[in-house]
Write a structure and sequence with these properties.
It is a single chain. This protein is an alpha+beta fold and about 290 residues long. It has three domains: about 55 residues, no CATH class; about 140 residues, Ribosomal protein S6/Translation elongation factor EF1B (Alpha-Beta Plaits, 2-Layer Sandwich); about 70 residues, Arc Repressor Mutant, subunit A, CATH 1.10.10. About 50% of the residues lie in helices and about 15% in strands. Strands 4, 5, 6, 7, 8 and 9 form a six-stranded mixed beta sheet that branches. It has a three-stranded antiparallel beta sheet with strand order 1-3-2, covered by helices on one side. A hairpin with a 2-residue loop joins strand 2 and strand 3. Helix 2 packs across helix 6, helix 6 packs across helix 7 and helix 9 crosses helix 10. The longest helix has 16 residues. The protein is globular, with a radius of gyration of 21 Å. This is PucR C-terminal helix-turn-helix domain-containing protein. InterPro entries: CdaR-like_regulators, Homeodomain-like_sf, PucR_C-HTH_dom, PucR_C-HTH_sf.
């Protein structure tokens, strides 16, 4: 698909030199520029499909013949036998300059992980790294911090999806393509590192929430006060621990207690109750 074909389907689409920071627009890399498209009335599945279509249309990077590439992208029947269990780590360069050295960046990125089976660019912005199963080397916070350092060193902005470990079987390509769709939807939400645990809840329920008049009405009532969202997120991150939540918000525990009580009075939902807390948290997801 080229831009003129896309323009006939989405008349509001336009090209820009940088991705949009406006939450009402979604940005797709396209031939050293960015396609900007209005999010309104676009389903998550539609945006994910469009992401994959545009990525496929971009010229692929030259890379050596790979059984992994053939297995994951070309429906090759031969299952790679180099590993019994692996995970696929997707990466995308959301911003880079014209002097960017792809090979040097890829070597630096590979050095973050042990037991790398293969890594290559799929196009000018996106690529994957396949890692054999091992004891965890880095946690989510460590990977995020290292990527921020790498971004500073190369003057780029990147994001990656750290996939789950899966058995290397004929079902792996289908599972991987679903991970691609999750990353396509979640990568522009400000997180450097995306995982199934951090993005799965939002990805799988967002369309259902958006389509529900009841949930939208409850969301409007619940989040009319800007402070409420911060309180809900802090309580969720602390797993309902009021003291930890108050510390993360830099407020006194009694102040947080008061806000929780006030929210319960207006909504009949208590953030001390885990079922209510989960429901409230779902409503904060964009």
């Amino acid at each position: 698909m080229n831009f003129h074909q896309l323009k006939r389907i989405y008349p509001e689409a336009f090209l820009s030199e940088q991705p949009s920071s406006d939450q009402e627009w979604v940005s797709f890399p396209f031939q050293q520029q960015w396609i900007q498209l209005k999010k309104e009335q676009r389903t998550a599945s539609e945006l994910a499909l469009l992401e994959l279509s545009l990525a496929a249309a971009e010229p692929k990077k030259e890379h050596r013949y790979s059984k992994w590439y053939a297995f994951l992208f070309e429906q090759a029947s031969a299952v790679p036998t180099t590993a019994a269990v692996c995970r696929v780590i997707q990466f995308e360069l959301l911003k880079k300059d014209r002097n960017f050295d792809d090979d040097l960046w890829l070597q630096s990125f590979k050095s973050l992980f042990d037991n790398v089976l293969e890594a290559f660019f799929l196009n000018d912005h996106q690529g994957i790294l396949i890692q054999d199963h091992q004891k965890e080397q880095w946690g989510l916070e460590e990977i995020t911090g290292i990527l921020h350092t790498l971004d500073d060193d190369f003057s780029v902005r990147s994001a990656c999806y750290v996939g789950q470990y899966w058995s290397v079987a004929s079902t792996l390509p289908e599972v991987f393509h679903e991970e691609q769709r999750i990353f396509a939807k979640e990568k522009n939400k400000g997180k450097t590192v995306v995982t199934l645990s951090t993005a799965g809840l939002s990805y799988y329920i967002q369309d259902t929430l958006t389509a529900s008049p009841l949930m939208q009405q409850l969301k409007q009532q619940l989040l009319s006060d800007p402070e409420t969202k911060e309180v809900i997120e802090a309580m969720w991150q602390s797993q309902g621990n009021i003291s930890l939540a108050a510390k993360s918000l830099f407020i006194h525990r009694n102040t947080l207690q008061y806000r929780i009580d006030r929210l319960q009075e207006t909504s009949q939902l208590s953030l001390r109750n885990l079922d209510d807390l989960l429901l409230c948290y779902l409503l904060t997801l964009e």
